[in-house]
Write a structure and sequence with these properties.
Layout: E1 3-16, E2 19-25, E3 38-42, E4 53-56, E5 59-60, E6 64-70, H1 74-81, E7 87-94, E8 106-112, H2 120-128, E9 132-139, H3 148-153, E10 158-162, E11 169-170, H4 173-184, E12 189-194, H5 197-209, E13 214-217, E14 233-238, E15 241-246, E16 253-255
Parallel strand pairs: 8-9, 8-12, 9-10, 10-11, 12-13
Antiparallel strand pairs: 1-2, 1-7, 2-6, 3-4, 3-7, 5-6, 13-16, 14-15
Helix pairs in contact: 4-5
Amino acid sequence: MRRDASSTILDKAQVAPAHYWMRLLCAWAPDSVEPGQFLHLQLPDDTDPLLRRPYTVFRVDETSVDILFQVVGKGSGLLADLQVGDPVRVLGPLGRGFTSPSEDATALIVAGGVGMASLLLLVERLASEGVSTRVFLGSRSRQYFLCREDLAALDVPLDVATDDGTEGHHGFVTDLAAEVLDREAPANPHVYACGPTPMMKALAKITGDRGIPTQVALENRMGCALGVCLGCVVPVESANGLTYERVCTEGPVFDARRVVWEYRL
């Protein structure tokens, strides 16, 4: 059940260039959060920027909730400038999260850059459920890799790719995932992904051609995050043809086969 409540920044750190981790006082029970759900944050100055900003739930415990974000604009820049003890207002948890596969599945997690922020909670959930899990992490350079220590603590196999070749596969993480799928043919694969839209579009083609169920967490600009303003709609295929669904309520997690990707770019 979502709540809109005042919160406080408990801790923060820069974890990569222009990437920050932040811990907020939690206003709701952690067992109410599904991996892939998000928060809508209002900064102390609630007039500039006027609208709240969405941030995925990175991690949660009994008293706090973590976010992991990249500074890409005014809102995220102002959030990164806040200090421990500063107030924020938090609406959440919001949206529809990831659905776990059966225990006999192999979960393949494909993350591009800060997309890992939407996926770590899922990896933790899959590990607790005994689902075999493997992570593919892509970044422009090794200095931008996120969550490596967290994944190591979970003892989850990790494959990495960098655009500049500084570590791991030299190229796109989607190509690396395709190579492993074809070479190793994991049993009953289910793919989960978050990252830049071109990455997810490419991945949807790869898994679609192979008939592999794939869930993707989309990121759209949002106004209300409650399904009222229709500012975050995404084109999807339905039984009646092309339609639009709201990322904030029907998503942010979608079946990759339903997303009409050519309208997303």
